[in-house]
Backbone:
């Protein structure tokens, strides 16, 4: 049984009692989030923060209209007042609603308790042990290369506990934790300064951070990235055949494809509108979004239940090159006459759920990476995503900071940072090889869409064609 420190009765008992006499649809979400950050720069502690939010978000559907209220008053009277407020808001708008809201039915309402790996282990780990790792990592990064002038190491952890209940049958507790580490190095030669970085974020305990690479590898990557860029020449721009790393594949899958298939964006006129059943990619491509960690454990967006109380599932978005699904909450699923996919997510208790991705990826193929590289006479190996932009048309432009030329089938010299751009669906159609490797590689940071969300993305290595913009010294 779960108890709040300030309450004599468990929160689930209070809300169930309120809901027992409620005349319509009621959705309740209790949320306790605890966030801690530790940062070291130039050998000195430069960040040591802790933030906790706790409260409840309540949605009511009445007369085809939503009403929402949130409160940090978790007493019985406080929750009853929030329910009344949400009900009043819904009823006040019902007569003005041109298209009444309806929710898709589902047999996937979650019940029970879901404690994801690492929550209790990381909770019991001493703060001093975490800080010592951050301090030593910054020192090792700063001293790893004579060109490194400044180093930064930051650790962040987010503990989440939620109770989700609705009158359609959901009744569940969820606990998970998402730790992440970031490494940044600045190298200089007296006339120029370059920046290198690496990062990792997972859903799980401390050791999950190092399941793909040891701590030393992240430090080495950031240091080499910074020092290599000091003397790197400019890239030769133009349309090129390239190898995209799992991190770049994840960025493409999430930003340039994933957002266009979120059902609210589809309804607003994204490029994916009306394309269900059409070939939008090479037949080699299988693109999915999942609440689970497919192929590799502890993805940064792992989520067993969404914020409408629906079990998350693996949703095939593109199957063998064909667009087969959008991402839905219960409301959009009803409009599209399909099933909810478990993609309703809210950042804090005071936020209403939006349609959001979880872990978005392209499934691995059967090709060997060395053979894929050998098949390129003049191109690039592109890694180190630096963010960028994508829009509802599928057009994108991303930066990349760890880039090497490929010459006559061999990895050659490092070049300056580049931009990669194009139309995402055209890029997917150009894919002619997909490696058997797989890695989650975008678990640090947040996705923004009105409110933040913790997500992950990744995949194998892809060989495709993109427009490469040359870097600058």
Residues:
């Amino acid at each position: 049984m779960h108890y709040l420190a300030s309450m004599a009765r468990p929160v689930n008992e209070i809300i169930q009692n309120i809901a027992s006499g409620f005349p319509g649809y009621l959705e309740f979400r209790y949320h306790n989030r605890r966030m801690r950050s530790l940062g070291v720069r130039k050998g000195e502690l430069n960040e040591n923060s802790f933030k906790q939010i706790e409260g409840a978000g309540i949605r009511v559907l009445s007369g085809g209209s939503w009403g929402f209220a949130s409160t940090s008053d978790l007493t019985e009277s406080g929750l009853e007042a929030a329910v009344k407020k949400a009900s009043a808001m819904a009823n006040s708008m019902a007569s003005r609603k041109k298209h009444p809201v309806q929710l898709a039915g589902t047999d996937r309402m979650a019940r029970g308790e879901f404690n994801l790996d690492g929550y209790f282990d990381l909770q019991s780990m001493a703060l001093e042990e975490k800080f010592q790792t951050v301090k030593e990592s910054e020192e090792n990064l700063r001293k790893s290369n004579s060109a490194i002038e400044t180093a930064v190491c930051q650790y962040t952890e987010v503990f989440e506990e939620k109770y989700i209940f609705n009158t359609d049958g959901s009744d569940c507790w969820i606990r998970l934790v998402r730790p992440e580490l970031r490494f940044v190095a600045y190298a200089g030669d007296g006339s120029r300064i370059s920046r290198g970085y690496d990062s990792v974020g997972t859903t799980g305990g401390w050791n999950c951070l190092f399941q793909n690479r040891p701590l030393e590898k992240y430090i080495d990557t950031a240091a080499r990235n910074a020092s290599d860029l000091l003397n790197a020449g400019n890239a030769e721009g133009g349309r090129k055949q390239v190898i995209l790393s799992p991190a770049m594949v994840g960025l493409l899958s999430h930003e340039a494809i994933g957002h266009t298939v979120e059902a609210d964006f589809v309804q607003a006129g994204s490029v994916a509108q009306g394309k269900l059943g059409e070939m939008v990619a090479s037949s080699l491509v299988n693109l999915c979004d999942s609440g689970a960690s497919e192929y590799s454990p502890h993805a940064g967006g792992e989520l067993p239940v969404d914020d409408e109380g629906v079990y998350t599932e693996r949703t095939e978005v593109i199957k063998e090159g064909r667009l087969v699904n959008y991402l839905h909450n219960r409301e959009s699923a009803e409009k599209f006459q399909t099933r909810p996919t478990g993609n309703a997510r809210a950042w804090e208790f005071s936020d209403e759920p939006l349609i959001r991705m979880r872990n978005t990826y392209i499934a691995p193929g059967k090709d060997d990476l060395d053979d894929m590289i050998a098949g390129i006479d003049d191109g690039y190996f592109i890694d180190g995503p630096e963010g960028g932009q994508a829009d509802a048309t599928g057009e994108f432009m991303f930066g990349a900071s760890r880039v090497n030329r490929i010459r006559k089938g061999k990895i050659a010299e490092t070049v300056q940072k580049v931009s990669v751009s194009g139309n995402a669906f055209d890029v997917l159609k150009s894919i002619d090889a997909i490696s058997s490797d797989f890695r989650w590689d975008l678990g640090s940071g947040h996705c923004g869409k009105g409110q933040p969300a913790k997500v992950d993305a990744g995949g194998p290595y892809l060989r495709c064609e993109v427009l490469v913009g040359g870097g600058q010294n």
Q: What stands out?
A: The radius of gyration is 24 Å. The chain has ten helices and 24 strands. The longest strand covers residues 44-62.
